[in-house]
Amino acid sequence: MILLDENTKAVVQGITGKQGSFHTKNMVECGTNIVAGVTPGKGGMELYEIPIYDTVLEAVKKHDANASIIFVPAPFVKDAAYEAIDAGIKLVIIITEHVPVNDAIDIISYAKSNNVHVIGPNTPGMASPKVGKLGIIPMNVIKEGKIGMVSRSGTLTYEIANELSNNGFGQSSCIGIGGDPVIGLSYIEILEMFENDPDTDAVVMIGEIGGSNEEIAAEYVKTMKKPVIAYIAGQTAPEGKTMGHAGAIIEKGVGTAESKMKTLEQAGAFVVRTISEIPKVLKEVL
Fold this sequence. Notes:
The structure is a single chain. By secondary structure, the chain is α/β, with parallel strands linked by helices. Helices cover 33% and strands 22% of the residues. The protein has nine helices and 14 strands. A hairpin with a 2-residue loop joins β3 (46-47) and β4 (50-53). The longest helix is centred in the middle third of the chain and has 13 residues, at 101-113. It is globular, with a radius of gyration of 18 Å. The two termini are 18 Å apart.
């Protein structure tokens, strides 16, 4: 498994908000080690027996926390992320969508200069079946196994995880990198982690139209020893039309499903056109 493992001690920033409290309950119920919550002004309270602090620094000092998951409104995400990084947190997951692009650029630049991994913004987070989840991935579709998953799309992550689980392929870890134009950890960085992870036998990579993230990742796929099965969403989207995610605008010949699929195929990935093909291909390659 990668990123979220048995050494993870997580803090929830915005734990007392509607989203924060709802998803914290789910995370705790599936066994995730949530050691503290942070909401300024609510220090001293508890939620689901989790102590709440006014600052991330207090949570780090008291509980040796090393990961943070952020459920705060978009205008406050930058402050929350900087606070986590300054407190010594090494993994920051930003669930919030509509984070201003300039803020996302600043957060990711600041994180890199402090050797901090950022997942998101606009991500469903991550799940490692053995230890739980940090985010909003429904654990009923996930099961323990040896397939690594990396995806830009939240909904497709759940759909494909469910397809794999129903066909006997559990997951080592499932990572949503986020659907925004500017995100933290890229496909390449996650693929490299899976390539070096002894718990992972193959990787399912889920892309979508727009941008060039998948084409860039293809360069790394060429070097991988583990099989990569790739699925690109948006195969029927017309050029020049913005689709869904902020990152999904197709320019002439770049960012289309076809260009991504072709590049990944040339790099040695097993490219499928439908979700139901993924378990079939896994049966062949493993």
